């Protein structure tokens, strides 16, 4: 009997406590919802009406970024080598404009990223047309498949010109304008291979390692000017990157790897890029469990990592369709 009375008393106390906590819990959830709403409103303002330059905009991830940033109300500058492809995209974006959010007709600037002199001229042309740049997305790049022993140095150089020196030249052509305004955000689309190297990707991994190092240094140097720098390191993305990859003799690889075909949806990666800009994230890694685990093994137990990569190289002794 005594136990039943104690149980009853305890239940009443618990009910009372829950009754007292309910308004607090509901208030907490309401505050969280309000914070998220305010955050979403702030996010729109960080992209809306901003001048956003996207390289490699005509296809793949660049095209998806163009669509997403256009929908968010950005003033796009579409960059690439083929003017006709960029014009087609600009027309598609213009025709798709709808809703209450104001959108802008994109500008187009064409140049070859591997020609650093023309890249610098393109940077000046962008500033001439738009007056300033708020957000620069260094997306364009080329991949590589090859055995180091069979790869000419000119191919290694070609990859570095496109993936490293090109983005560096464009960044530095626009950087002083951002510093003068104490405003700007620079995004570098790197790769998980900028953190770990795998066999038969030497030139590509080297270029992405260089990109990671450069933009990490840039972030530190321009922070005092109020500039933001983001490095996005995705794993495989479902684009034509492997098909257009360069082999050791300079020819195209021409194969859609299984890892690429089953990779990230480029639209999903584009959303991550937009979120990174809106949240001013310094680094974003989009990869599966194994690649992320490999980065920690490389850091904490490099000897194990080296053995694993050597085993992978022996298992796959020649570049071929995966």
Automatic annotation (TrEMBL):
Stretches that traverse the bilayer: 284-306
PROSITE patterns: ADH_SHORT
Stored InterPro entries: KR_dom, NAD(P)-bd_dom_sf, Sc_DH/Rdtase_CS, SDR_fam
GO biological process terms held by the UniProt record: lipid metabolic process
GO function term, MF aspect, one: oxidoreductase activity
Alphabetized UniProt keyword annotations: Membrane, Oxidoreductase, Transmembrane, Transmembrane helix
GO cellular component: membrane
Occurrences of domain Ketoreductase (ranges): 50-240
SMART domains per UniProt: PKS_KR
Pfam (any one): adh_short
Family: Belongs to the short-chain dehydrogenases/reductases (SDR) family.
Function: Putative oxidoreductase.
Name of this chain's protein: Dehydrogenase/reductase SDR family member 7B
């Amino acid at each position: 009997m005594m136990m039943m009375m104690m149980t009853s008393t305890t239940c009443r106390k618990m009910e009372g406590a829950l009754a007292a906590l309910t308004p607090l819990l509901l208030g907490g959830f309401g505050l969280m919802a309000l914070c998220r709403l305010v955050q979403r409103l702030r996010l729109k303002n960080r992209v809306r009406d901003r001048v956003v330059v996207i390289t490699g905009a005509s296809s793949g991830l660049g095209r998806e970024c163009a669509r997403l940033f256009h929908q968010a109300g950005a003033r796009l500058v579409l960059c690439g080598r083929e003017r006709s492809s960029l014009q087609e995209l600009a027309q598609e974006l213009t025709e798709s404009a709808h809703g209450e959010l104001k959108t802008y007709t994109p500008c187009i600037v064409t140049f070859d990223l591997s020609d650093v002199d023309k890249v610098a001229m393109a940077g000046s042309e962008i500033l001439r047309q738009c007056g300033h740049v708020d957000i620069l997305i260094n997306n364009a790049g080329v991949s590589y498949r090859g055995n180091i022993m069979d790869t000419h140095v000119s191919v290694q150089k070609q990859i570095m010109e496109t993936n490293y020196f090109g983005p560096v030249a464009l960044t530095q052509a626009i950087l002083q304008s951002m510093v003068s305004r104490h405003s700007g955000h620079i995004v570098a689309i790197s790769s998980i291979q900028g953190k770990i190297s795998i066999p038969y990707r030497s030139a590509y991994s080297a270029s992405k390692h260089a990109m990671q190092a450069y933009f990490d240094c840039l972030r530190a140097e321009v922070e005092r000017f109020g500039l933001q720098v983001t490095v996005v390191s995705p794993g495989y993305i479902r684009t034509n990157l492997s098909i257009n990859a360069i082999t050791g003799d300079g020819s195209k690889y021409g194969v859609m790897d299984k890892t690429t075909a089953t990779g990230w949806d480029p639209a999903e990666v584009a959303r991550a890029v937009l979120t990174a800009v809106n949240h001013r994230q310094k680094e974003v890694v989009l990869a599966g469990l194994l690649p992320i685990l490999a980065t920690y093994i490389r850091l904490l137990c490099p000897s194990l990592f080296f053995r694993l990569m050597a085993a992978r190289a022996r298992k796959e002794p020649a570049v071929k369709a995966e």
